[in-house]
Design a protein that fits this description.
The complex is a heterodimer of chains A (231) and B (157). Chain A contains ten helices and no strands. Chain A is mostly helical. The longest helix of chain A is centred in the middle third of the chain and has 31 residues. The chains are: A mainly alpha (231), B alpha+beta (157). At the A-B interface, α1, α2, α4, α8 and α9 of A face α1 of B.
Amino acid sequence: MDISSKALLILYLSTGFTIGFGHCIGMCGPIVASLTLNLGTRRILVPQLLYHYGRITTYSIIGGIMGAVGSFTIVTAKIIIIQKSVLIFSGALVVVMGLSNSGWLPRIKILSDNFNLTKRISKGLAALLEVKSNFIFYPLGLLFGLIPCGPVYTALIGAARAGMDARNIFQGTLSGMMLMACFGLGTVPALFLTAKIVNISSLKYRLLLYKTGSILMIGAGLYFIVKGLNY
Amino acid sequence: MNIETVATPDINDHLPVFLFLFLCFFFLDSAGFSMAEAGQTAQGLINCSFDQGPCHLKLSGQDISFEISPKPVKAMSVLDFKMIFSENLAGEEAAFLMDLDMPGMNMGGNQVHMKKISKGVYEGRGTIVRCLSGGKIWRATAILPKQGKIQFIFEVH
């Protein structure tokens, strides 16, 4: 790898870092916070690392595809429906988590058949919320990495350009993957800090913070759903 | 002698609360209210309407014409950018960079490479990304090496 490529990777890493604090905390922070609150008293390090690893994996795959194809618009046109669906689903999940964590609607009521949800959906959500294994955070990260995001799009434009400048498809794919992996890695500190702050150890205020956080989660989830429907 | 001990407040109990409240504010500010504010502010700064034709601004007394095609200008599509200087304002520069960003929202660096096609005429190709916030006000900043910067603010469909 030549110097200019290394410089580009460092640029993407630093861009991800600044974007993380300038954009990701506000837009994706609610998801991270929601997942953290759902952990309860469990330790957050491994789940968060798995979640971000999943997110970076998704970014890298899409970046590789962009680099191979050499076109941002062609690839995004193909995946827009998937992204829209993921956005709506993630919003719904965050709302359910918010309602569940707040205790205003106990889980059993949300996820029972009395709410006219299909058995498959209610059982699926119940299974998701009851999972004790940390590994579930990796596929969640894979999925939420598909959420439409302006700065991620901007980074993908660069990945596509790297593909256009590459000598062959393999080099283009690799360049796209590495650029997006660096970008995703750069966003981790901001979101990890978000999770850390949410994961407050003070028992004195835990209930109050859960309520406040739940309000934010529900609002953010509804926001994602509305945006997904209009995307 | 009975000595009463008074429990002193532990800042570690309160610090997480303030951090959490700060984070809540950050959520609202980054994801909601700042967007609304940026939208209102940027709406007032719009100086281009490509639906009505090329945009004309002046820099150092020189006319600059800026156009984006195809129309209507849409996000997430390939766009052609064309800038025409009434005189050879950009000097002998073979190219210059043009930043594409959204006022009030950090979207990362998106630059278009504007190449000289003929005397005073520069063209480039790029894409304006879509923001989840739904914001449609974008800004193109031409970075001229000797003359400085000029900004075109417009609405994207």
